[in-house]
Amino acid sequence: MMESLLPAWLMPVAASVQAAKVDRIFIGLTIISALIVLLVVGLVVTFSIRYRRGSKADRGPLPEVVSREFEIGWTAATLFVFVFIFWWAASAEITAFSPPKDALEVHIVGKQWMWKAQSSNGAREINELHVPVNAPVRLVLTSQDVIHAFYIPALRLKRDAVPDQTTETWFQATKTGTFQLMCTEYCGTDHARMLGRVIVMEPQDYASWLAAQPEGDDLAHQGERLFSARGCSGCHAPGSSVHAPSLAGIWGQAVQLDGDKRATVDAAYIRDSILQPARDIVAGYAPIMPSYAGLLSDGEIQELTAYIRSLGAGPRVIRTPGVPPLSSRVPGNATERSPAMVPGAPVSDTPAPAGPAVRP
Hints:
By secondary structure, the protein is an alpha+beta fold. It folds into three domains: 96 residues, Helix Hairpins (Orthogonal Bundle); 108 residues, Sandwich (Immunoglobulin-like), CATH 2.60.40.420; 142 residues, Cytochrome Bc1 Complex, Chain D, domain 2, CATH 1.10.760.10. The chain is built from seven helices and twelve strands. It has a five-stranded mixed sheet with strand order 3-2-1-5-8, with helices on one face. It has a five-stranded mixed sheet with strand order 4-10-9-6-7. The chain has a two-stranded antiparallel sheet with strand order 11-12. Strand 6 and strand 7 form a beta hairpin. Helix 1 runs antiparallel to helix 2 and helix 4 crosses helix 7. The radius of gyration is 27 Å and the shape is elongated. It starts with 16 loop residues before the first helix and ends in a 50-residue tail after the last helix. It holds the Pfam family COX2. It is found in: Membrane. This is cytochrome-c oxidase. Belongs to the cytochrome c oxidase subunit 2 family.
C-alpha cells in the first residue's frame, strides 16, 4: 500500500482513490529533487576539494567535443524529466474534472467563515459533509463572498470556491472515519477557524443518516418553485408569449450563439446566463433577459441549475429560428428527469415542465 511508504508525521492517512495518485507524484518529485540535490552538492564538495587553493589538479580547459556533448546531453535529459513530470502531474489533475456519471452530487457554498453543503436530495449541513464509502462524490463549489479553498488532506482534495463562478471536482473515499476539512485560501480574520469535517460512512449507515434528516425537497424541486416565484415561467414556460428558448432537454447540449460561437449547457454556462445574460446571446433571440446579479443568492442559482438539469439531456440541440441545427434530432426523443444522486434511489421518468431560460 502507498501509505506504508509515507511516515505518519509526513503525510496524513490516505483515504481516497485520488490519494494514491497524489502520493505517488509526491514521492516521485521528492526522489527526483533529492537526486538533484545530491548531484549538485556532491559536485560542489568534489570540486571544492579537488580544486582547492594549492592543489596540483589540472585546471586547463576541457576538450571542446567533451564540453559540447555534455551540454547537449544534460539539456536533453533535463527537458525529458520536465516533460515527464508535467505529463504525470497533469494527467492526475485532469481526472478531477471528469466525475463518474453516477456520482453523488453535493453543492458547496463557502462564506466567511463556514462551509454550507447541500446534497441533491435536499440534505443540508454546515461545516460537515456525510458521504458513503466507495461511492464517487461530485462537488460543485462556489463562494458567497471571497475566494475560499475547499481542502481535505486525507482525501488529497483541494479546489477553490470562487465568487460568481462554479468549480467542480470529485473524490471517492476508500476508508470510513472522520477527516478534517479546512480552508487553505486566506479569506479574512477568522480564516484559521473555517474548519469542518468529512464523515465517511458505510452505505447502510449513510442511508440511515439520510433517512433521519429533516424532510425537505431536493434542489430540483426547490429550483422549480423558484423558477415560478422569480417570474422565469413568464418567458420560458410552454405557451409563453415571450420569444425565449425552451430549456427542456438542453442540459449538456451545444447551443449556437451570436457571432458564430457555440457553448455547452453546463453549470457555469447557466450561471453566466443568469448573471450576465447579455454577454452571449443564443442565435435567433433578442437580448431582452434582465440580469439577476444581486437578486439571486448562490444557493438559489444552484437550485435553478439543478432544476434545469432535472429536465433531462436529450440528443438534440436548441433549435433557433433561421439557424440550422448543430446535429440531427433523434426520432422518439423524450425529456426525462435525471436520476437522483443517491445510491439505490429510483429513477423518475415523469416529464418536468420547462425551466428558466438560459440566454435570451
